[in-house]
TrEMBL record:
Entries under Pfam families matching the protein: Bcl-2
Signal peptide: none
Ranges for domain Bcl-2 Bcl-2 homology region 1-3: 58-154
TM annotation in the entry: 177-197
InterPro entries according to UniProt: Bcl-2-like_sf, Bcl-2_BH1-3, Bcl-2_fam, Bcl2-like
Organism: Stegastes partitus (bicolor damselfish)
Keywords attached to this entry: Apoptosis, Membrane, Transmembrane, Transmembrane helix
GO terms, biological process: extrinsic apoptotic signaling pathway in absence of ligand; intrinsic apoptotic signaling pathway in response to DNA damage; mitochondrial fusion; regulation of apoptotic process; release of cytochrome c from mitochondria
Family: Belongs to the Bcl-2 family.
Name used for this protein in its record: Apoptosis regulator BAX-like
Domain of life per record: Eukaryota
GO MF terms held by the record: BH domain binding; channel activity
């Protein structure tokens, strides 16, 4: 296992981030059936700041994607299709990263989990929210965590997002997730600057 800089755990941050994204999406759902999830598993203030910044980034991506019908249809397919919901979730998760893992695609996957949790509560299946959390965390640990560690950990995600998003803007793809990459460009740079400012008193 590779050492993690600044005493931060990429696994803890990722797990806490998934929970935060799901909880943030569920805050907008007018339902008494929203289940309580376990508290965020961060260890220190630096990890909490990282989770908060990443969570804001993913939330803004989600807000910008509300009118993207193709994207919403993919989420509806997991929520309403036939067969195992866990299998359908894994198919969508695999689809998100089929062309390779990037910071943008990790953000997309976490957003999918949050929106899917909302769909389940609206469908009067709130017990499924904890299953969605488990599926997403399992997928993160098995398929994303190694990549995150190999790419310097979450600490590097802001600068990498800024660089990648600027490159992608000039070569826009018609892929269903292409719009997210465009929306993230200004946000990623702003989040990185904010993180740098909060890091230095």
């Amino acid at each position: 296992m590779a050492p993690e800089g600044n005493g931060m755990s990429d696994e803890r941050i990722g797990t806490a981030l998934i929970k935060q994204v799901i909880e943030e999406e569920l805050k907008d759902v007018p339902s008494e059936d929203v289940p309580d999830l376990d508290p965020l598993a961060v260890k220190n203030e630096q990890e909490q700041k990282m989770v908060n910044q990443l969570g804001k980034m993913i939330r803004i991506i989600g807000d910008r994607m509300k009118d993207d019908q193709e994207f919403q249809d993919a989420i509806d397919g997991v929520a309403c299709g036939s067969g195992s919901k866990s299998d359908r979730f894994m198919q969508v998760a695999d689809k998100v990263i089929e062309q390779g893992i990037t910071w943008e695609r990790i953000a997309v996957l976490f957003y999918v989990a949050g929106k899917l949790a909302v769909k389940m509560v609206q469908s009067h299946l709130p017990q499924t929210v904890k299953e969605i959390l488990k599926w997403t965390v399992d997928f993160f640990r098995k398929k994303l965590l190694g990549w995150i560690r190999d790419h310097g950990g979450w600490i590097n995600s802001f600068s990498e997002l800024a660089v990648a998003s600027v490159q992608r803007v000039s070569s826009f793809s018609s892929h269903s997730y292409g719009l997210i990459i465009i929306f993230i460009s200004g946000l990623a740079l702003g989040s990185f600057i904010t993180w740098r400012l909060t890091r230095h008193p």
